[in-house]
Design brief:
Chain A: It catalyses: a quinone + NADH + 5 H(+)(in) = a quinol + NAD(+) + 4 H(+)(out). Chain A: Residues 64-94, 111-140 form the 4Fe-4S ferredoxin-type domain. Chain A: It comes from Pedobacter cryoconitis. Chain A: It is found in: Cell membrane. The structure holds 2 protein chains of 2 kinds. Chain A is of the alpha+beta class. In chain A, 20% of the residues lie in helices and 13% in strands. Chain A has 5 helices and 5 strands, in the order ααβαββαββα. By secondary structure, chain B is mainly α. Chain B is 69% helix and 1% strand. Chain B has helices spanning 3-38, 54-64, 75-91, 120-141, 145-176, 181-187, 194-197, 199-212, 224-227, 237-261, 271-306, 314-345, and strands at residues 102-103, 109-110. In chain B, strands 1-2 form a two-stranded antiparallel sheet. The chains are: A alpha+beta, B mainly alpha. The interface between A and B is medium-sized, with 14 and 14 residues.
Chain lengths: 166, 346
């Protein structure tokens, strides 16, 4: 057949010469290669203790943000849930009471906000959909667990730590 | 025979037995670490600092596992198999001289060898050939076709390579004129190691030792891709542990034999100077340490080769054994004989 590229290489199988048939030089070469790896730096990262640095656009676990006064930004508009292609997000909205003014930024807030981490595909569309800049996928890798129910993360795991007021 | 002699031997046997078990235990750890380092990995490092408790964890796991005996297995032989493998692996250490005799202050001479029989080399051979029985009995009693195939492979491999091993030893015996391991070691005083007189014989011997211990590249009896687990396919729990353990003890013993026969045993250059400096108790112990350093070097070599050379195909194994090693070994015997005859004549 006419070669399609100029990369064609004709292989010629020569009979082995004496040194090659002895195998020993080849064995020596092989041993030299493996022992050279003995002194190379290992590629392993000791994961839980040492963590690899993620790229700047890495998307990890979600976090629900607070504003500069420590109030929750989320207004339970449901756009994140709507945009979610995996249907991982559910929420129940509630009306803010007057005494909760320090807790939530707007009159409406998410009383229940749940993300099923087994469904989530970490696409980041919720982050893009959010008009209040309330949700970001800036957390670590979602840890493993034993039961399915433990992968449904509520507000206890998602909301940022409250600001410490001086 | 006085009672102190019995106690002395008993203590020596206990120490050697303990040491060989501990070395076999840590060989499993070393194997995993060496494998990891040769592959740019870390290896086990979770159990204790650097993972040094890993063998204990593995042993505990082995003991805790469920013991399964297949319904159609020959129960008696199924249980004998691993025991026999372990027994034959352990008794090989009896004739190896672990150090030159210690002379205590009371003038008592304690030999660091359990027994110096005048056919030590033959004894080692006998024990090594027995070791295949553990594999064969286990493989046959499992009533599993893969185990049986593996047992047949192990038997034919051992028979094939024993011939070449025996012939390589004959050339060595021509040089040493004795079969007692103690005398062979004492002849290699200082730098006069047998490997310098018998380099080809050593090469043949080490290749055959790899085959006899079922180590890569000759690990056909337990090759996973063809035979699942080989002769220990049906084994579980500590019976499996015994088989794996016996392999490491075999490796230790054959390393010790190689160090003794070809690499001078406990001899090292400058040992006379050390004897005058350190005295008759410490110097033999230094010699023992040197012997163990040689043994560890061989064990490392075993592991190094395992991660370098792929497994032989069955026909290649037989080709290498019968058509390459045996003719070379015979030629080695003839050449050695002629050279010795010429040297003695002139």
């Amino acid at each position: 057949m006419e070669p399609l590229t100029s990369k064609k290489k004709i292989l010629i199988q020569k009979p082995l010469n004496f040194a090659e048939r002895m195998y020993l030089p080849a064995l020596g070469k092989g041993l030299a290669i493996t022992i050279s790896h003995f002194f190379k730096k290992e590629a392993t990262i000791r994961y839980p203790e040492v963590q690899r640095e993620m790229s700047i656009n890495w998307r990890g676990m979600h976090s629900l943000k607070r504003d500069e006064d420590g109030k929750e930004r989320c207004t339970a508009c449901g756009l994140c849930a709507l945009s979610c292609p995996a249907e991982a997000i559910t929420m129940i909205a509630a009306e803010r009471k007057p005494e909760e003014k320090d807790l939530y930024r707007e009159e409406k807030y998410a009383a229940v906000y749940e993300i099923n981490m087994l469904r989530c595909i970490f696409c980041g569309l919720c982050e893009e959909a959010c008009p209040k800049e309330a949700i970001y996928l800036d957390g670590p890798i979602v840890p493993s667990d034993y039961l399915r129910k433990d992968f449904i993360y509520g507000k206890d795991k998602l909301v940022e730590e409250p600001l410490v007021k001086k | 025979m006085d009672i102190s002699f019995v106690i002395e031997k008993f203590v020596l046997v206990a120490i050697i037995f303990g040491i060989s078990l501990v070395i076999a235990m840590y060989s499993t750890y070393a194997e995993r670490k060496v494998a990891a380092f040769l592959q740019d990995r870390l290896g086990p490092d979770r159990a204790g600092p650097f993972g040094i408790l890993q063998p204990l964890a593995d042993g505990l796991k082995m003991f805790m596992k469920e013991e399964i005996i297949p319904t159609h297995a020959n129960k008696w032989l199924f249980m004998v198999g691993p025991g026999l493998a372990m027994l034959t692996a352990c008794i090989g250490t009896a004739v190896i001289p672990w150090g030159s005799p210690i002379t205590t202050a009371a003038g008592r001479i304690i030999p660091l060898q359990v027994t110096d029989i005048n056919v030590g080399v033959l004894y080692i051979f006998g024990v090594v050939s027995l070791s295949v029985y553990g594999v064969m009995i286990g493989g046959w009693a499992s009533n599993n076709k893969y185990s049986l195939l593996s047992a047949i492979r192990a038997a034919s491999q051992n028979i094939s390579y024993e011939v070449a091993m025996g012939l390589s030893i004959i050339a060595l015996l021509l040089v040493t004129n004795t079969m007692s391991l103690k005398e062979i070691v004492e002849m290699q005083h200082g730098w006069h190691w047998n490997v310098l007189y018998q380099p080809l014989g050593f090469l043949l011997f080490i290749i055959c030792a790899f085959a006899e211990t079922n180590r890569a590249p000759f690990d056909l009896p337990e090759c996973e891709t063809e035979l699942i687990g080989g002769y220990h396919t049906e084994y579980s729990s500590m019976k499996l542990g015994f088989y794996l353990f016996a392999e490491y003890i075999n490796m230790f013993v054959s390393s010790a034999v190689m160090a003794t026969l070809y690499f001078g045993g406990y001899n090292y250059p400058g040992m006379d100077w050390v004897l005058t400096m350190a005295g008759p108790v410490i110097a033999p112990l230094i010699g023992t340490a040197v012997l163990f350093a040689k043994i560890f070097a061989f064990i490392f070599f075993f592991m190094w080769v395992r991660w370098t050379i792929p497994r032989f195909r069955y026909d290649q194994l037989m080709h290498l054994g019968w058509k390459v090693l045996i003719p070379i070994a015979i030629a080695n015997v003839i050449v050695t004989g002629i050279v010795i005859a010429i040297v003695e004549k002139f």
